[in-house]
Fold this protein.
Amino acid sequence: MAPSFERPPLQADERTALTGWLDLQRQILRWKCDGLSEADAHRSVIPTSPAMTMAGLISHMRWVEHTWLEVLFLGGDKTQNPSFDETDADASWRTDGVPLKQLLAQYEAQCARSNEIVATASLDDVGRHPDYRSGNANLRWMLIHLIEETGRHAGHADIVRELLDGAKGYYYGLGEHRYSRWR
């Protein structure tokens, strides 16, 4: 059974619209993992991008959330985040065999932490990390970027999932006719 997805209200205030669209893209990304075997979650199907597995996508997005909200926005420690590994451009994609269920739980926890950060800040607040130009963006800009990047990777997940097992998932959120399915 497909989950119920909700777009933000059509007359939402700015914060509700931004966080609503981000939450929807996160939900779609997680949905693409439903029913995958552990082997398929870690199987590479794109020869030119071997780290782009379903597990790798979830790992990467966990670290993307951490990068933008904990490191760049709050000015936090970057050393635990593999995205800042200058010797391996794919470090945030590497899962080292960590089970998909654990990666999803880590992503969920990071999204919850991100939501806490966003809830306590003004959209006009500016990032605090002095070492990166992107740290000078305001929270509004960072949320728009997170929506863009999460949506982009949800699209990658569409392709990876179809190549893995032929499953095609669609989400239609038009008017009163919300429809989602794997076929």
Summary: The chain has five helices and two strands. Helices lie at 14-31, 38-41, 54-73, 100-119, 139-165.
